[in-house]
Amino acid sequence: MSVFTNAMQQLDRATTFARLDPFTLERMHRPERIIDVEFPVVMDDGTVKFFHGYRVQWNDARGPFKGGIRFHSQVEMDEVKALAFWMTIKCAVVNIPYGGGKGGVTVDPKKLSKSELERLTRAFTRAIADVIGSDKDVPAPDVNTNPEIMDWLADEYAHALGHQDLAVVTGKSLAHGGSEGRGTATGQGAFYVFEAYRSALNLGASLRIAVQGFGNAGQSIADLLQRAGHKIVALSDSNGAIFSKEGIDIQAAKKYKAKKGVLAGFPGSESKTQEELLTCDCDVLVPSALENQLTASIAPNVKAKLILEIANGPTTPEADIEFFKRRITVVPDVLANAGGVATSYFEWVQNKKQEHWSEPEVFEKLERLMAEASKAVRQTAGKYQVTERQAAFILAIERVAEAERARNQIEVSAN
Prior knowledge:
By secondary structure, this protein is an alpha/beta fold. The protein has 14 helices and twelve strands. The strands form two sheets. A seven-stranded mixed sheet has the order 9-8-7-6-10-11-12. α10 links the parallel β11 and β12. α4 crosses α5 and α13 crosses α14. The longest helix has 27 residues. The two termini are 42 Å apart.
């Protein structure tokens, strides 16, 4: 099943509870705009190459489109459409005034020099300058993009616009209008969601936790969970997994990974496969790697009581059904990993108001927002007796539909 098909199935299941009028239902199934551009870049040797760029703008009924820009050699449009749709849902779940978007450039950035990468970023910005803006579409970092690239984008957009508009993009460096706490915001937000569910489900104060994926978000959540007194019994990277029933020191694992390039061989641990990590003896499972990891064949063997999805789409629809039958709570990605976009929103507000908040201020606001979103999703799940994922989608769709109806009435009355 493609990622986009999965996303649309999630929408269809949710709309059996959130009844929508035909117009709104069709609107939710379709992107509002797909931007497809070809643009030239002068390479270091003086030759000119053309690159393919794109931007999918799914829905802006609740506010400007919002979503990352990725630089990757294997761009798959179905996936990008799904991610733009999920961003629409994610922003509505945490109740921030954004719609959803996604985009990028088909390129292997590792094959470019830094100067070529900057020229590519600036050329792409010029190509899409008329469809982005702080009140239109606000990009952010994604795969293979970072704060420096966002700085280039903001600077080039200012040249195209004729004046500065820092809020056109989020995820910038601190020196160029970025927000404190943005680097660890996804993990920090996931931790606040975890705390809300741990308390609501009475799971206890010291839990055994397995984290699949040891990138930025995986390292961040593992570190936060360990600092809170929980035991990290399993970790994995793209080369395999490690397990220790005595617990893994996250700081030591970070240093080992930085030195060796892999987690395999970490002192005091056993080597495991990815599937063995997903089915290991733990209380909480945190998939923070790739999509479609928890499948129908793996789900019956999962031992965790709570699954906290930091990765996008790690659980297949069939596995979701199995977990619901087994009373395993799955906190969906559109809630669990929304800390990044929530903090992007805080950056956007700071830029708009020409303010700069301290990290404690940012995290205080983030904790409140994520706790409120968690409570709203739990209440919706209880109201309809559905999974947390269905509840998140129902909640989001109701919010988007309300905005669509208001916008449509305005458009009709204007005519």
